[in-house]
Design a protein that fits this description.
By secondary structure, this protein is α+β, with helices and mostly antiparallel strands. It contains 5 helices and 6 strands. It starts with a helix and ends in a 9-residue tail after the last helix.
């Protein structure tokens, strides 16, 4: 026969080490605060790790110097060599890879040019489409918008 004492024992076994009762609120809150730190999402948010590991340091745009032109193979099922550049940021010296948008945009960018980069627009600040690991795109070259260079509206200034 199952009596009230055996039911109570089953309840106490299943709840683990959590306190129970009228004065249990503070220990429960303290315990929850302690175990919050086990969650990676909480730790990243509180310690602001995304901003600290971001090469642009939380800024929407950054300028840098072109080190080299690179071709990046696109992910499956696509087959292409996407044009990109390796850039050294002037604010902190970190190197990033930035995509060159537009048809023939590579012609207007040379080594040692100063470029302005911004986020490429991928999910959660990450890569976009079939470009693996590329999180930024080139917006300006030597102070002139890359779009105006491609469409022939402006000429690239000689530095």
């Amino acid at each position: 026969m199952v009596g009230p004492s055996s039911l109570k024992r089953n309840i106490t076994l299943s709840r683990g080490k959590s306190p129970l009762g009228e004065f249990a609120a503070r220990p429960l809150v303290r315990k929850r605060k302690k175990f919050r730190w086990k969650k990676a999402s909480y730790k990243r948010r509180v310690l602001q790790l995304r901003r600290k590991t971001d090469p642009l340091e939380g800024a929407p745009q950054a300028s840098g110097i072109v080190l080299e032109k690179v071709g990046i193979e696109s992910k499956q099922p696509n087959s292409a060599i996407r044009k990109a550049v390796r850039i050294q940021l002037s604010k902190n010296g970190k190197q990033i890879t930035a995509f060159i948008p537009g048809d023939g945009g590579l012609k207007y960018i040379d080594e040692h040019d100063q470029v302005l980069v911004e986020g490429i627009g991928g999910a959660m600040g990450g890569a976009m489409g079939d470009l693996p690991g590329v999180r930024w795109k080139v917006v300006k070259v030597n102070g002139v918008a890359l779009d105006s260079l491609i469409y022939g509206k402006k000429e690239k200034p000689i530095r």
